């Protein structure tokens, strides 16, 4: 046989062998739709990524046990879309997926990812998170902000009353954002007013810059840098980072000045006071540099404000769309908060079981972070028999999991808070990270540490707004006319802001 024929035969065998190996490797990845060169599956993802992932899961993920593997430009991506798969992932692979993908925007806006939310998994993140859980968001610290919540709810009710007396419609987003922003800004920095206004502006501009896919997601380093420079993204991020830094540095300086005048009582401290005191005390091994302190305060404000105001706006929308639920909740509030009380006491909130159920139902259907915050794996993992390589980005589609018929029955789209009310002795499904069909705050190591802070802020506001007012749709609109779609972005506000008319109620 001629050497050419031999070489061709050998090459053929080698190609078939390599193809078989590649296919065997591929077959160990979770299912995946057909992809294009370079961009992979990016062209299949719309502006509301959670909806695109859900559609792809329904179409291609059937045999994948709730897992779907996508190549989004350069990013290997695992999408989890069912409660069963989320349970397996958090129970058995939480550590492998406990890091975060690094982004240029996160680096620039959060002091090199020195905040808790974007920090890669490691000792600094662990210590930063401990500070958040033990010192900033502990039940005792949250309790110390009760007067702040009471004052800001009073202001919220007063603003709604002005509109009610004038017979005017109110844009709820503006009203509710003003409230959550003021509570969080006061808890973080001790003041609201102009500080809260400035923060609103900074937060709004920053969200627009970090939303959506970034050039480095799609392109190799050098071209991505070029695109960032050519499109002006880098300049915008640098300007934004400078504006944040100027603002935060002034607040830190004024707190340091105050501290030099003598330490106040620990019970009256805001987040910045706590962080500066911990720096003095040694901070459990974490070097609390100025940058880390500023990143932590910025992180808390960013993580708390929009998530809370969006939850309130969605809840009001669902209540107006479901008058039966609205009436039942108003009855509960009237039963618990009697007429002799001018304002609702926080201790009464625990007696409002249906109120908590209403919020849970809202968070099931409208989780503010529909894909959580992206995780990244630091080691290879075998999930449900599939091999997932290290450095894979993980999206947990809690928006889809909240609609998973296997977990929620045959009418998962229906707003029915009774799902979360159970008979004596049974524990209702909760969002504390162990009922994997309902994880709007995440689960495992990277779970949200802010639940205790968020819930009284939400519950006190809603109970007060429903106690003092009836809420009507403007201009003959009917509940069925309400647009219940969400806008694109990292969090999911309503696409169309909710506008309602408050009518003063006489307290029965
Ligand atoms: C309705 C209100 C809120 C919702 C729905 C919410 C939801 C979430 C979610 C989904 C995550 C990501 C979990 C993951 O990646 O697995 C998260 C992380 C985080 N949240 Fe919240 N959150 C809320 C309020 C708050 C508040 C009030 C604070 C602080 C005052 C806060 C601070 C944080 C922090 C620091 C992280 C990062 C945790 C980490 O990476 O280890 N959140 N939150």
TrEMBL record:
<keyword id="KW-0560">Oxidoreductase</keyword>
<dbReference type="Pfam" id="PF00067">
    <property type="entry name" value="p450"/>
</dbReference>
<comment type="similarity">
    <text>Belongs to the cytochrome P450 family.</text>
</comment>
<keyword id="KW-0349">Heme</keyword>
<dbReference type="InterPro" id="IPR036396">
    <property type="entry name" value="Cyt_P450_sf"/>
</dbReference>
<dbReference type="GO" id="GO:0005506">
    <property type="term" value="F:iron ion binding"/>
</dbReference>
<protein>
    <recommendedName>
        <fullName>Cytochrome P450</fullName>
    </recommendedName>
</protein>
<keyword id="KW-0408">Iron</keyword>
<dbReference type="GO" id="GO:0004497">
    <property type="term" value="F:monooxygenase activity"/>
</dbReference>
<dbReference type="GO" id="GO:0016705">
    <property type="term" value="F:oxidoreductase activity, acting on paired donors, with incorporation or reduction of molecular oxygen"/>
</dbReference>
<keyword id="KW-0479">Metal-binding</keyword>
<dbReference type="InterPro" id="IPR002401">
    <property type="entry name" value="Cyt_P450_E_grp-I"/>
</dbReference>
<dbReference type="InterPro" id="IPR001128">
    <property type="entry name" value="Cyt_P450"/>
</dbReference>
<keyword id="KW-0503">Monooxygenase</keyword>
<feature type="binding site" description="axial binding residue">
    <location>
        <position position="448"/>
    </location>
    <ligand>
        <name>heme</name>
    </ligand>
</feature>
<dbReference type="GO" id="GO:0020037">
    <property type="term" value="F:heme binding"/>
</dbReference>
<dbReference type="InterPro" id="IPR017972">
    <property type="entry name" value="Cyt_P450_CS"/>
</dbReference>
């Amino acid at each position: 046989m001629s050497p050419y024929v031999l070489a061709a035969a050998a090459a053929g065998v080698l190609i078939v062998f390599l193809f078989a190996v590649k296919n065997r490797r591929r077959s160990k990845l979770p299912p995946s739709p057909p992809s294009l060169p370079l961009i992979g599956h990016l062209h299949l993802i719309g502006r509301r990524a959670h909806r695109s992932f859900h559609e792809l899961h329904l179409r291609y993920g059937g045999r994948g046990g709730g897992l779907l593997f996508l190549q989004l430009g350069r990013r290997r991506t695992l999408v989890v879309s069912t409660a069963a798969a989320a349970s397996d992932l958090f129970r058995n692979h939480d550590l492998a997926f406990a890091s975060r993908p690094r982004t240029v925007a996160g680096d620039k806006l959060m002091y090199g990812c020195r905040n808790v939310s974007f920090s890669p998994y490691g000792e600094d993140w662990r210590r930063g998170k401990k500070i958040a859980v033990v010192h900033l968001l502990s039940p005792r610290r949250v309790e110390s902000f009760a007067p702040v919540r009471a004052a800001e709810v009073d202001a919220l009710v007063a603003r709604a009353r002005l509109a009610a007396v004038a017979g005017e419609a109110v844009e709820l987003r503006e009203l509710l954002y003003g409230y959550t922003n003021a509570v969080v800004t006061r808890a973080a920095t001790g003041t609201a007013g102009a500080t809260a206004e400035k923060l609103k502006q900074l937060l709004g501009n920053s969200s627009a810059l970090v939303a959506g896919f970034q050039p480095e997601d799609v392109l190799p380093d050098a071209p991505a840098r070029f695109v960032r420079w050519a499109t002006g993204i880098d300049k915008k991020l640098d300007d934004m980072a400078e504006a944040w830094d100027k603002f935060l540095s002034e607040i830190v300086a004024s707190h340091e000045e105050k501290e030099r005048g003598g330490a106040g009582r620990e019970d009256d401290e805001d987040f910045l006071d706590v962080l500066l005191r911990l720096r003095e005390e040694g901070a459990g091994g974490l070097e609390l540099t100025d940058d880390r302190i500023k990143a932590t305060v910025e992180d808390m404000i960013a993580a708390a404000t929009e998530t809370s105001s969006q939850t309130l706006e969605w809840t009001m929308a669902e209540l107006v769309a479901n008058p039966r639920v609205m009436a039942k909740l108003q009855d509960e509030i009237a039963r618990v908060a009697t007429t002799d009380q001018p304002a609702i006491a926080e201790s009464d909130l625990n007696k409002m079981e249906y109120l908590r159920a209403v919020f849970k139902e809202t968070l099931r259907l409208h989780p503010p972070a529909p894909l959580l915050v992206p995780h990244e794996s630091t080691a290879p993992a075998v999930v449900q028999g599939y091999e997932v390589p290290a450095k894979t980005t993980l999206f947990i589609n809690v928006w889809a999991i909240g609609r998973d018929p296997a977990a929620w029955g045959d009418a998962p789209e229906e707003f029915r808070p009774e799902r979360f009310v159970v008979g004596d002795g049974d524990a209702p499904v909760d969002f504390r990270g162990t009922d994997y069909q309902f994880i709007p705050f995440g689960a495992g190591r990277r779970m949200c540490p802010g639940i205790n802070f968020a819930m009284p802020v939400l519950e006190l506001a809603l109970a007060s707004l429903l106690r003092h007012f009836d809420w009507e749709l403007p201009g003959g609109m009917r509940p069925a006319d309400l647009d219940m779609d969400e806008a694109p972005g990292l969090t999911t506000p309503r696409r169309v802001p909710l506008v309602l008319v408050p009518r003063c109620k006489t307290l029965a």
